[in-house]
Amino acid sequence: MAKVKLADVARAAKVHPGTASRALNPGQRGQVSADTVQRVVRAAERLGYVPNAQARALRTSRSHLVGIVVPDITNPLFPPIVRGAEHVLTAVGYTVLLTDTDNDRDRERRQIESLLGRGVDGFIIATALWDDPLLTDLAEEGVPVVLTNRCASGGRWPYVAGDDQAGVRLSVQHLTSLGHTSIVHLAGPQVVSTGRERARAFRAAAKEFGLTNGDARVSVCQSYSEADGRSAMEKVLAKGGAPFTAVVAGNDLIALGALDALAAAGLDCPSDVSVVGFNDMPFVGRIQPALTTVRLPLQRMGALAADLLINELDNDEKQDAPTRTLLGVDLVVRGSTAVAARPRGRRR
Amino acid sequence: MAKVKLADVARAAKVHPGTASRALNPGQRGQVSADTVQRVVRAAERLGYVPNAQARALRTSRSHLVGIVVPDITNPLFPPIVRGAEHVLTAVGYTVLLTDTDNDRDRERRQIESLLGRGVDGFIIATALWDDPLLTDLAEEGVPVVLTNRCASGGRWPYVAGDDQAGVRLSVQHLTSLGHTSIVHLAGPQVVSTGRERARAFRAAAKEFGLTNGDARVSVCQSYSEADGRSAMEKVLAKGGAPFTAVVAGNDLIALGALDALAAAGLDCPSDVSVVGFNDMPFVGRIQPALTTVRLPLQRMGALAADLLINELDNDEKQDAPTRTLLGVDLVVRGSTAVAARPRGRRR
DNA sequence: TCAGGGACCGCAACCGATTGCGCCGAATCT
DNA sequence: AGATTCGGCGCAATCGGTTGCGGTCCCTGA
After folding, report:
1. Residue B147 pairs with which residues in a beta bridge?
2. Residue A44: which of A59, A29, A57 has the closest Cα?
3. Among A7, A20, A84, B192, which residue has the least CB neighbours within 10 Å?
4. What is the pLDDT of residue A192?
């Protein structure tokens, strides 16, 4: 069965294609008599008419396509975000173009350009660097962009994410209330906002809860991964210095790596060292020990990012002050944190 | 900066747009002199020309868009598949339209129709039911489809997945070799191929390894979820019957649910009951007890599915015999399986 | 020298939907 | 009754590439 096109519907309803188009588009329906509208709509239904999105996009230069850019869809952090965004977007007639940049900047740029060639109306980007030339390029071309998960410097883009600062503060508060007086922060990469922000928040919280400088060390991981979490933890253990009894990880992956390093060093979690993660990835509550971590409303983040983008797309007026939303987070206390033991660490 | 279009390039190269088009398309390049090709290509580069995919698709009725349909991107099974497929597809100029059906048939149909309206060239579908009207409809419309993860009856579609039968056989073999003589299979839903196939394989393997009927029970879960796994396990425990010492779960999620039910019933895994899962989802090796499970090459599955689809799209000749590929699987032995204890179970 | 044959390239139609412009007939006003 | 307005709809251009057809020019062979 050949695709039925607008002209077919028009013929069936005995009107001109232009009229059929108006009858089918709620916005222009006022220009057509109710009677005609009904005839056209009926005909369209009877024939099973599905408008050709390509043609429409070509003419209107609105594709109703949205690109979602994630660094690695395999990282459990992102699927819920994608899902939340997708549900909102499809509900209002947008379609999602997903692209996984594989944490590769060149690939990311190529992908985004390809998507632009496809005429996407806007992007939801979860891969932003703190200083990101790609973003400024997009801004110059006037492409609507909403950032999620990570933000960028300049505060130029709408943005929705979890409240990193609050999450870290909750973690530190929890640990100090358990009697921990020397805590290590295994920070995420400092080129992304979450890495910077959580590290900043850690220092602030440490000060707030009375930890002195030497007792609130920060060690930076190259990436958010188990491998880098592990090696960062190993490095801290090897270096010695003041003994510590707790670790605040930049995210759950880093926490997992840290757990490995601790176990390898013969340290037990939580009796020797408490560990808290960030993100509450699926199943981290079932690992051994069950990970205490900060829960973000990921799906809601995605949904909100989509809302923001839709809003920006529909009101083509540019708003000068981009909305920036921080969603509340919870600390989920599980088995990886416990009352501080006598201070302990690897000494040289 | 306004988008540069083909006409601009043509003007810059002092040729007709038609000629510019031919010069830029490798397939037609032979019809243009080498000198002109170079002029056009240079001009295109200089101006930063990006062809408008919509216009091209409209004219050629080839969008280079592929729809990937998954039931729930939040299920860790799917991201690797999507990733594998996406990498292959983008490498040859296709773009991925992702849609998450939320396990909702109506939603799925709407989404697919919407994607068809967008002119997708083909689909990779991971949501197939065993008897799936949606698939036959697509087949009637002549839309290329490749199935992955699950297949459908009739053997009408190209298909790539893990070797379920081999995986289950490995599991049963492993358990019997540990001395288990009474095993329960918590099967997945029987409306999807993996549920049926694994159940069938379980019965066959049980027979092969000498388990009698009463010692190879099958209980079916409504869905692949922790909740249904748990309730199925609870039901088996409540019903009593012959004591069992091992469980082969339809997938990891079901296994997790079963673990919960066992723990709630005061049974220890693995000392009282061994459990083996299926899929080797991320992090199931870190839960307590570390789950013995069957590992599928998920990313490779996605990549292969993409290869199959591309092949079908490029050779518009319909091949009468669809390729069906089963990828080899491994049994990953971890802590949730152990030598059989004395048979035990809940007795009334 | 002239017919025949390519190689190259321009012309214009076309893909399918949208929309500014303007025509026509009927209702309203004076 | 004649002028005027307005609702409803048809016409045709347009979005940006692609491609069948045919024209021009040059080269080859007799």
Report:
1. B125, B159
2. A29
3. A7
4. 93
Q: What does the pLDDT average to over B279-305?
A: 94
The span from the CA of B27 to the CA of B132, in Å, is 39
Listed range (A199-203, B253-257, B284-288, B292-296) with the worst mean pLDDT: B284-288
Mean pLDDT of B40-53: 94
- The predicted pLDDT at position A163 comes to 97
For chain B, positions 279-308, list CB contacts with chain A under 8 A. 281-284, 286-288
Relative to beta strand A159-162, strand A324-327 is parallel
Distance CA A320, CA A315 (A): 12
pTM for the whole structure: 0.91
Task: For residues B245 and B125, give the distance between their C-alpha atoms in angstroms, rounded to a whole number.
Answer: 37
d(CA B90, CA B106): 29
Q: CA distances (Å), A304 to each of A22, A159, A299, A323, B276, in order? A: 32, 9, 9, 11, 39
Select from A1, A2, A7 the least CA-distant residue to A19: A7
Sign of the alpha-carbon dihedral angle for B306, B308, B314, B317: negative
Measured CA B16 to C1' D27 distance, in angstroms: 25
As a whole number of angstroms, the distance between CA A135 and CA A137 comes to 5
* Residues of chain A above pLDDT 90, percent: 82
Tokens 């992956």, residue located: A253
Mean pLDDT across A175-190: 96
CA distance B32 to B21: 10
Collect all residues of chain B within an 8 Å Cβ-Cβ radius of residue A115: 95
Question: Distance between CA A97 and CA A64 in Å, rounded?
Answer: 10
